[in-house]
Predict the structure.
Amino acid sequence: LLGAVVRELREQTEMLLADLKEQTRVTASIEAERARLTTAVGEQTAEKKRLSMLLEAKQRLQADTETEIAAEKQRSQALAARAGSLKELIASLEADKTRKAADQAKAAERKSGDVDQAAPNGAPASTELASLPVPEGNRLTAAAPFSALQGQIALPVTGKIKRRFGADDGNGAVMQGDMVATQSGAIVTAPADGNVLYAGPFRSYGQLLILNAGDGYHVVLAGMSRISVATGQSVLAGEPVGAMGEARVASTSASQNGNATPELYVEFRKDGKPVDPTPWWADRFSGRT
């Protein structure tokens, strides 16, 4: 009888030990899961804080950019108001751009000196690295000089050249560019890569866009009802820069000849002087790329 009781007690003990072992395993699993969740919550909190900081930095950058664009636009409009001709406008804009670049270079030099003193071994700060220009080797395509693009440039808008450089403009003067007859609401694209030197109204030109194409070349587009780029912005060939209106809104003069067809005036300049755009136009292109 005693042996049977001992066997029964041994079996119950083994069962209790097995339950205790399982309870210990479950407890350990729960603790591991709790630790994992605590780590995950900590990581999510840190990520949320990082994203909040990035959002705040982006908002500050956007506000600074908008302020800078507004100031640049106001400065450009002031120069345009003082300029008596397109040549004077381009010259004043280029002079202002040169002065601004010189000021920025001096500011960058002073800042670089401060960074060199603060950073170990002269290592640039991460913000300085982020602000560096893209190396030429990393660009998608090499930038070709504007003079090398002869025969390769498409018309900046769908249409046909109605009046060409050197022809009578109908007011006793000579055309200094080409006039392209197009359609209402047509999208206008940049003929070549460049930087927006001016974007806004100017005298009888209406909405005027001037692109600095480099190497002393400037591309002038006038006659749009809307310009979608801002001064200082870089554009690529074929990138939309504006749209035409319902009727012609500008020309090289303030004449009205009753022509309701939207017309885009295109002028190329080299070192401030108008040049014939004809050698640059590609015959196989008729409009947007």
In short: Residues 1-71 form one domain. Residues 132 and 281 are 35 Å apart (CA to CA). The helical segments are 2-82, 86-118, 126-131. The first strand starts at residue 160 and ends at 163.
